[in-house]
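Entry
Fold in C-alpha coordinate form

___
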Amino acid sequence: MTHFSTEFFRQNRQSLRKLLGNDQLVVMTAHGVLQRTADTTFPFAQERNFWYLTGIDEPDLVLVLDGTEEFIIAPPVDAVRDVFDGALNAKAVTKRSGITTVLPYAEGWNQLKAALHAHKTAHTILPGPVYHQQYALYANPARRRLLEHIKRLNPGLDLQDARPALTKLRSVKQPAEIAAITEAVRITTQTIDTLRQQQTLQAFANEYELEAAITAAFRRTGASGHAYTPIVASGAHATTLHYVANDGRINPGELIVVDVGAEVENYAADITRTLCSRPLTPRQRAVADGVREVQQHAAALIAPGLQLRDYEAAVAAKMGEVLQSLGLVTSTHDTDMIRRYYPHATSHFLGLDVHDVGDYHTPLEPGMVLTCEPGIYIPEEGIGVRLEDDLVVTTTGSKNLSASCSYDPSIV
Protein backbone atom coordinates (compact mmCIF):
# COMPACT_ATOMS: atom_id res chain seq x y z
CA MET A 1 0.00 0.00 0.00
CA THR A 2 1.24 3.47 -0.83
CA HIS A 3 0.02 6.82 0.42
CA PHE A 4 1.11 8.49 -2.82
CA SER A 5 -0.52 8.26 -6.22
CA THR A 6 1.02 9.18 -9.56
CA GLU A 7 -1.23 12.24 -9.51
CA PHE A 8 0.51 13.47 -6.32
CA PHE A 9 3.84 13.77 -8.12
CA ARG A 10 2.30 15.10 -11.32
CA GLN A 11 0.53 17.82 -9.35
CA ASN A 12 3.73 18.73 -7.51
CA ARG A 13 5.48 19.32 -10.83
CA GLN A 14 2.57 21.41 -12.03
CA SER A 15 2.62 23.48 -8.84
CA LEU A 16 6.34 24.12 -9.28
CA ARG A 17 5.75 25.27 -12.87
CA LYS A 18 3.12 27.73 -11.68
CA LEU A 19 5.46 29.21 -9.08
CA LEU A 20 8.43 29.53 -11.43
CA GLY A 21 6.52 30.32 -14.62
CA ASN A 22 5.02 27.75 -16.97
CA ASP A 23 7.55 28.49 -19.72
CA GLN A 24 10.63 28.00 -17.52
CA LEU A 25 13.29 25.31 -17.77
CA VAL A 26 13.82 23.22 -14.63
CA VAL A 27 16.63 20.67 -14.29
CA MET A 28 16.86 18.51 -11.16
CA THR A 29 19.15 15.64 -10.27
CA ALA A 30 18.68 12.56 -8.16
CA HIS A 31 21.31 11.77 -5.58
CA GLY A 32 24.20 9.48 -6.39
CA VAL A 33 25.31 6.44 -4.42
CA LEU A 34 28.04 7.27 -1.89
CA GLN A 35 31.15 5.23 -1.10
CA ARG A 36 31.30 3.63 2.34
CA THR A 37 34.64 1.79 2.10
CA ALA A 38 36.55 0.43 -0.89
CA ASP A 39 33.81 -0.73 -3.28
CA THR A 40 30.98 -0.84 -0.73
CA THR A 41 28.32 1.86 -0.50
CA PHE A 42 26.09 3.50 2.06
CA PRO A 43 22.38 2.71 1.74
CA PHE A 44 20.94 4.95 -0.96
CA ALA A 45 18.81 7.92 0.11
CA GLN A 46 17.10 9.96 -2.59
CA GLU A 47 17.41 13.73 -2.94
CA ARG A 48 14.16 14.80 -1.33
CA ASN A 49 13.17 17.48 -3.85
CA PHE A 50 13.68 15.01 -6.70
CA TRP A 51 11.49 12.46 -4.92
CA TYR A 52 8.82 15.09 -4.22
CA LEU A 53 8.57 15.75 -7.96
CA THR A 54 8.88 12.17 -9.25
CA GLY A 55 8.42 9.54 -6.50
CA ILE A 56 11.47 7.72 -7.89
CA ASP A 57 14.04 6.14 -5.55
CA GLU A 58 16.72 5.45 -8.17
CA PRO A 59 20.15 7.12 -8.29
CA ASP A 60 21.74 9.28 -11.01
CA LEU A 61 18.57 10.28 -12.85
CA VAL A 62 17.97 13.80 -14.18
CA LEU A 63 14.52 15.39 -14.35
CA VAL A 64 13.84 18.05 -17.01
CA LEU A 65 10.75 20.26 -17.10
CA ASP A 66 10.74 22.36 -20.26
CA GLY A 67 7.48 24.27 -20.41
CA THR A 68 4.80 21.62 -20.85
CA GLU A 69 7.35 18.98 -21.87
CA GLU A 70 8.99 16.75 -19.28
CA PHE A 71 11.43 13.88 -19.45
CA ILE A 72 13.87 11.88 -17.36
CA ILE A 73 17.44 11.17 -18.41
CA ALA A 74 18.68 7.72 -17.41
CA PRO A 75 22.28 7.19 -16.27
CA PRO A 76 24.80 5.57 -18.63
CA VAL A 77 24.24 1.85 -19.09
CA ASP A 78 26.74 -0.29 -17.20
CA ALA A 79 26.27 -4.02 -17.81
CA VAL A 80 28.22 -5.04 -14.70
CA ARG A 81 26.35 -2.62 -12.46
CA ASP A 82 23.04 -3.78 -13.91
CA VAL A 83 23.89 -7.39 -13.04
CA PHE A 84 24.76 -6.54 -9.43
CA ASP A 85 22.24 -3.76 -8.72
CA GLY A 86 19.50 -4.29 -11.30
CA ALA A 87 18.83 -2.32 -14.47
CA LEU A 88 16.62 0.76 -14.51
CA ASN A 89 12.99 -0.16 -15.22
CA ALA A 90 11.73 2.66 -17.45
CA LYS A 91 8.14 1.39 -17.33
CA ALA A 92 8.18 1.43 -13.53
CA VAL A 93 9.59 4.98 -13.57
CA THR A 94 6.74 6.11 -15.84
CA LYS A 95 4.07 4.31 -13.81
CA ARG A 96 5.27 5.89 -10.56
CA SER A 97 6.02 9.42 -11.75
CA GLY A 98 3.60 9.88 -14.63
CA ILE A 99 6.50 11.01 -16.83
CA THR A 100 6.10 9.10 -20.09
CA THR A 101 9.47 9.94 -21.64
CA VAL A 102 12.53 8.23 -20.15
CA LEU A 103 15.54 8.78 -22.42
CA PRO A 104 18.86 6.97 -22.60
CA TYR A 105 21.81 8.99 -21.33
CA ALA A 106 23.24 10.31 -24.63
CA GLU A 107 19.86 11.03 -26.21
CA GLY A 108 18.60 12.70 -23.07
CA TRP A 109 21.58 14.99 -22.71
CA ASN A 110 21.40 15.96 -26.39
CA GLN A 111 17.78 16.99 -25.86
CA LEU A 112 18.66 18.86 -22.68
CA LYS A 113 21.54 20.61 -24.46
CA ALA A 114 19.11 21.98 -27.04
CA ALA A 115 16.82 23.18 -24.24
CA LEU A 116 19.70 24.85 -22.41
CA HIS A 117 20.52 26.88 -25.52
CA ALA A 118 16.85 27.73 -26.14
CA HIS A 119 16.52 29.39 -22.72
CA LYS A 120 18.38 32.27 -21.10
CA THR A 121 17.55 31.00 -17.60
CA ALA A 122 17.29 27.58 -15.98
CA HIS A 123 16.17 26.60 -12.47
CA THR A 124 17.88 23.94 -10.40
CA ILE A 125 18.99 23.32 -6.82
CA LEU A 126 22.24 25.23 -6.62
CA PRO A 127 24.88 23.29 -4.67
CA GLY A 128 26.17 24.51 -1.34
CA PRO A 129 29.72 24.10 -0.07
CA VAL A 130 31.45 20.75 -0.47
CA TYR A 131 31.86 20.66 3.33
CA HIS A 132 29.18 22.05 5.65
CA GLN A 133 31.07 23.36 8.66
CA GLN A 134 27.93 23.80 10.80
CA TYR A 135 26.93 20.15 10.45
CA ALA A 136 30.42 18.69 10.00
CA LEU A 137 29.44 16.75 6.89
CA TYR A 138 30.28 16.49 3.20
CA ALA A 139 27.54 17.20 0.67
CA ASN A 140 26.34 14.62 -1.82
CA PRO A 141 28.19 15.62 -5.03
CA ALA A 142 25.23 15.10 -7.39
CA ARG A 143 24.07 18.73 -7.47
CA ARG A 144 27.56 20.06 -8.11
CA ARG A 145 28.15 17.45 -10.81
CA LEU A 146 24.92 18.49 -12.57
CA LEU A 147 25.82 22.17 -12.35
CA GLU A 148 29.26 21.58 -13.85
CA HIS A 149 27.73 19.57 -16.70
CA ILE A 150 25.20 22.33 -17.45
CA LYS A 151 27.89 25.01 -17.41
CA ARG A 152 30.02 23.04 -19.86
CA LEU A 153 27.08 22.88 -22.27
CA ASN A 154 26.08 26.54 -21.90
CA PRO A 155 28.52 28.69 -19.89
CA GLY A 156 26.39 31.83 -20.31
CA LEU A 157 23.19 30.37 -18.90
CA ASP A 158 21.66 32.21 -15.91
CA LEU A 159 21.10 29.54 -13.26
CA GLN A 160 18.45 30.28 -10.65
CA ASP A 161 17.94 28.40 -7.38
CA ALA A 162 14.63 26.51 -7.29
CA ARG A 163 14.97 25.96 -3.55
CA PRO A 164 12.71 28.85 -2.39
CA ALA A 165 9.84 27.65 -4.60
CA LEU A 166 10.24 24.03 -3.49
CA THR A 167 10.47 25.10 0.16
CA LYS A 168 7.18 26.97 -0.20
CA LEU A 169 5.51 23.90 -1.71
CA ARG A 170 6.95 21.35 0.70
CA SER A 171 6.31 23.42 3.85
CA VAL A 172 2.53 22.95 3.74
CA LYS A 173 1.79 19.25 3.77
CA GLN A 174 -0.87 17.68 1.58
CA PRO A 175 -3.26 15.03 3.01
CA ALA A 176 -1.17 12.14 1.64
CA GLU A 177 1.94 13.54 3.32
CA ILE A 178 0.19 13.98 6.65
CA ALA A 179 -1.12 10.41 6.36
CA ALA A 180 2.42 9.07 5.84
CA ILE A 181 3.79 11.10 8.76
CA THR A 182 0.89 9.96 10.95
CA GLU A 183 1.68 6.33 10.12
CA ALA A 184 5.37 6.87 10.92
CA VAL A 185 4.38 8.46 14.24
CA ARG A 186 1.99 5.58 15.03
CA ILE A 187 4.73 3.01 14.48
CA THR A 188 7.19 5.00 16.58
CA THR A 189 4.90 5.65 19.53
CA GLN A 190 3.60 2.08 19.55
CA THR A 191 7.18 0.82 19.61
CA ILE A 192 8.22 3.08 22.49
CA ASP A 193 5.20 2.24 24.62
CA THR A 194 5.68 -1.50 24.02
CA LEU A 195 9.37 -1.48 24.95
CA ARG A 196 8.97 0.74 28.02
CA GLN A 197 6.89 -1.85 29.87
CA GLN A 198 8.48 -3.08 33.07
CA GLN A 199 9.70 -6.57 32.23
CA THR A 200 10.73 -5.52 28.72
CA LEU A 201 12.69 -2.40 29.65
CA GLN A 202 14.46 -4.05 32.56
CA ALA A 203 15.74 -6.78 30.24
CA PHE A 204 17.97 -4.36 28.31
CA ALA A 205 21.46 -4.18 29.82
CA ASN A 206 22.98 -2.07 27.03
CA GLU A 207 21.86 0.83 24.86
CA TYR A 208 22.47 -1.11 21.66
CA GLU A 209 20.09 -3.85 22.79
CA LEU A 210 17.28 -1.32 23.13
CA GLU A 211 18.24 0.23 19.78
CA ALA A 212 18.12 -3.22 18.12
CA ALA A 213 14.68 -3.90 19.57
CA ILE A 214 13.42 -0.56 18.23
CA THR A 215 14.85 -1.31 14.77
CA ALA A 216 13.20 -4.73 14.68
CA ALA A 217 9.85 -3.30 15.79
CA PHE A 218 9.97 -0.56 13.15
CA ARG A 219 10.55 -3.07 10.34
CA ARG A 220 8.06 -5.56 11.71
CA THR A 221 5.25 -3.00 11.87
CA GLY A 222 5.68 -1.52 8.38
CA ALA A 223 8.41 1.13 8.45
CA SER A 224 11.36 1.03 6.04
CA GLY A 225 13.65 1.69 9.00
CA HIS A 226 14.86 4.72 10.93
CA ALA A 227 14.30 8.23 9.57
CA TYR A 228 17.60 9.25 11.19
CA THR A 229 20.33 7.73 13.33
CA PRO A 230 18.61 6.68 16.58
CA ILE A 231 19.59 8.10 19.94
CA VAL A 232 19.47 5.75 22.93
CA ALA A 233 21.30 7.59 25.69
CA SER A 234 21.41 6.33 29.28
CA GLY A 235 22.61 8.29 32.30
CA ALA A 236 25.29 10.88 31.56
CA HIS A 237 25.11 10.06 27.84
CA ALA A 238 21.71 11.78 27.78
CA THR A 239 23.39 15.14 28.38
CA THR A 240 24.96 14.92 24.89
CA LEU A 241 22.19 16.08 22.56
CA HIS A 242 23.07 13.95 19.52
CA TYR A 243 24.66 10.97 21.25
CA VAL A 244 24.46 8.15 18.69
CA ALA A 245 27.14 5.68 19.82
CA ASN A 246 24.48 3.71 21.72
CA ASP A 247 27.11 1.41 23.18
CA GLY A 248 26.91 2.14 26.91
CA ARG A 249 25.43 0.15 29.77
CA ILE A 250 21.92 0.89 30.97
CA ASN A 251 22.32 1.02 34.73
CA PRO A 252 19.21 0.45 36.86
CA GLY A 253 17.62 3.74 37.89
CA GLU A 254 19.27 5.85 35.17
CA LEU A 255 17.16 7.99 32.88
CA ILE A 256 17.24 6.88 29.24
CA VAL A 257 16.58 9.40 26.48
CA VAL A 258 15.12 7.57 23.48
CA ASP A 259 14.99 9.86 20.42
CA VAL A 260 13.82 7.84 17.42
CA GLY A 261 11.60 8.08 14.38
CA ALA A 262 10.27 5.52 11.94
CA GLU A 263 10.36 6.28 8.21
CA VAL A 264 7.33 5.55 6.02
CA GLU A 265 7.64 6.19 2.27
CA ASN A 266 10.50 8.64 2.97
CA TYR A 267 8.45 10.62 5.52
CA ALA A 268 9.78 10.89 9.06
CA ALA A 269 8.52 10.71 12.60
CA ASP A 270 10.64 12.31 15.30
CA ILE A 271 9.64 11.32 18.83
CA THR A 272 11.54 11.53 22.11
CA ARG A 273 10.62 10.03 25.44
CA THR A 274 12.71 9.71 28.58
CA LEU A 275 12.40 6.31 30.27
CA CYS A 276 13.55 4.71 33.51
CA SER A 277 13.50 1.09 34.64
CA ARG A 278 12.87 2.03 38.28
CA PRO A 279 10.82 4.63 40.16
CA LEU A 280 12.37 8.07 39.75
CA THR A 281 14.34 9.82 42.48
CA PRO A 282 12.86 13.12 43.69
CA ARG A 283 15.43 15.06 41.64
CA GLN A 284 14.78 13.05 38.48
CA ARG A 285 11.05 13.55 38.95
CA ALA A 286 11.46 17.30 39.41
CA VAL A 287 13.48 17.64 36.20
CA ALA A 288 11.12 15.41 34.21
CA ASP A 289 8.07 17.33 35.45
CA GLY A 290 9.78 20.59 34.58
CA VAL A 291 10.40 19.51 30.99
CA ARG A 292 6.82 18.34 30.63
CA GLU A 293 5.57 21.70 31.98
CA VAL A 294 7.61 23.59 29.39
CA GLN A 295 6.46 21.28 26.60
CA GLN A 296 2.80 21.76 27.45
CA HIS A 297 3.32 25.53 27.49
CA ALA A 298 5.08 25.42 24.11
CA ALA A 299 2.54 23.14 22.41
CA ALA A 300 -0.33 25.41 23.50
CA LEU A 301 1.27 28.29 21.59
CA ILE A 302 1.43 26.55 18.21
CA ALA A 303 -1.24 27.92 15.88
CA PRO A 304 -1.61 29.64 12.50
CA GLY A 305 0.03 33.06 12.37
CA LEU A 306 2.62 32.23 15.04
CA GLN A 307 6.08 33.65 14.40
CA LEU A 308 8.64 31.05 15.45
CA ARG A 309 11.06 33.72 16.65
CA ASP A 310 8.47 34.99 19.15
CA TYR A 311 7.53 31.42 20.04
CA GLU A 312 11.12 30.43 20.86
CA ALA A 313 11.52 33.51 23.05
CA ALA A 314 8.34 32.66 24.97
CA VAL A 315 9.45 29.06 25.49
CA ALA A 316 12.90 30.16 26.66
CA ALA A 317 11.25 32.48 29.20
CA LYS A 318 9.15 29.60 30.53
CA MET A 319 12.23 27.39 30.64
CA GLY A 320 14.00 30.08 32.69
CA GLU A 321 11.23 29.88 35.30
CA VAL A 322 11.53 26.10 35.50
CA LEU A 323 15.32 26.14 35.67
CA GLN A 324 15.14 28.70 38.48
CA SER A 325 12.72 26.47 40.39
CA LEU A 326 15.23 23.63 40.00
CA GLY A 327 18.03 25.78 41.41
CA LEU A 328 19.98 25.76 38.16
CA VAL A 329 19.78 29.48 37.34
CA THR A 330 19.44 32.52 39.58
CA SER A 331 17.68 34.73 37.04
CA THR A 332 14.97 33.91 34.52
CA HIS A 333 16.47 36.55 32.21
CA ASP A 334 20.03 35.16 32.15
CA THR A 335 20.03 33.82 28.59
CA ASP A 336 23.54 32.38 28.82
CA MET A 337 22.68 30.37 31.93
CA ILE A 338 19.40 29.17 30.46
CA ARG A 339 21.17 28.02 27.29
CA ARG A 340 23.71 26.15 29.40
CA TYR A 341 20.96 23.74 30.42
CA TYR A 342 18.71 24.15 27.36
CA PRO A 343 21.04 24.69 24.39
CA HIS A 344 18.72 23.97 21.45
CA ALA A 345 15.60 25.33 19.78
CA THR A 346 12.19 23.95 20.68
CA SER A 347 10.81 23.20 17.23
CA HIS A 348 11.80 22.33 13.69
CA PHE A 349 9.81 21.42 10.60
CA LEU A 350 9.19 17.74 9.85
CA GLY A 351 8.43 15.87 6.64
CA LEU A 352 10.59 14.29 3.95
CA ASP A 353 13.57 15.32 6.03
CA VAL A 354 13.56 14.96 9.79
CA HIS A 355 14.76 18.58 9.85
CA ASP A 356 12.52 19.50 6.96
CA VAL A 357 12.51 22.59 4.77
CA GLY A 358 10.58 25.62 5.99
CA ASP A 359 10.89 29.36 6.41
CA TYR A 360 11.49 30.20 10.07
CA HIS A 361 10.82 33.88 9.39
CA THR A 362 7.23 33.57 8.14
CA PRO A 363 4.09 32.79 10.18
CA LEU A 364 2.91 29.22 10.60
CA GLU A 365 0.15 28.01 8.28
CA PRO A 366 -2.36 25.15 8.53
CA GLY A 367 -0.82 21.95 7.18
CA MET A 368 2.70 22.64 8.43
CA VAL A 369 4.17 19.88 10.61
CA LEU A 370 6.73 20.58 13.29
CA THR A 371 8.20 19.10 16.43
CA CYS A 372 7.93 20.37 20.00
CA GLU A 373 10.95 19.18 21.98
CA PRO A 374 12.18 20.99 25.07
CA GLY A 375 14.83 19.38 27.24
CA ILE A 376 16.95 19.97 30.31
CA TYR A 377 20.54 18.68 30.41
CA ILE A 378 22.57 18.78 33.65
CA PRO A 379 26.04 17.32 32.97
CA GLU A 380 27.24 17.85 36.55
CA GLU A 381 24.40 15.62 37.78
CA GLY A 382 24.42 13.15 34.89
CA ILE A 383 20.76 13.92 34.18
CA GLY A 384 19.26 14.55 30.76
CA VAL A 385 15.54 14.72 29.98
CA ARG A 386 13.89 15.48 26.62
CA LEU A 387 10.32 15.13 25.40
CA GLU A 388 9.38 15.49 21.74
CA ASP A 389 6.07 15.38 19.92
CA ASP A 390 5.05 15.89 16.28
CA LEU A 391 2.29 18.43 15.68
CA VAL A 392 0.24 19.44 12.63
CA VAL A 393 -0.86 23.07 12.50
CA THR A 394 -4.65 23.27 12.06
CA THR A 395 -6.97 26.18 11.29
CA THR A 396 -7.53 26.80 15.01
CA GLY A 397 -4.35 25.56 16.69
CA SER A 398 -2.53 22.25 16.34
CA LYS A 399 -3.05 18.50 16.54
CA ASN A 400 -0.53 16.40 18.46
CA LEU A 401 0.06 13.23 16.42
CA SER A 402 2.02 11.54 19.20
CA ALA A 403 -0.15 12.44 22.21
CA SER A 404 -1.01 8.78 22.86
CA CYS A 405 2.61 7.98 23.79
CA SER A 406 3.06 8.12 27.58
CA TYR A 407 5.09 11.05 28.91
CA ASP A 408 5.90 9.55 32.32
CA PRO A 409 9.46 8.16 32.51
CA SER A 410 8.37 5.52 35.04
CA ILE A 411 7.84 2.02 33.71
CA VAL A 412 4.26 0.92 33.09
In short: The chain has two domains: 6-170, 172-400. The chain has a mean pLDDT of 96.
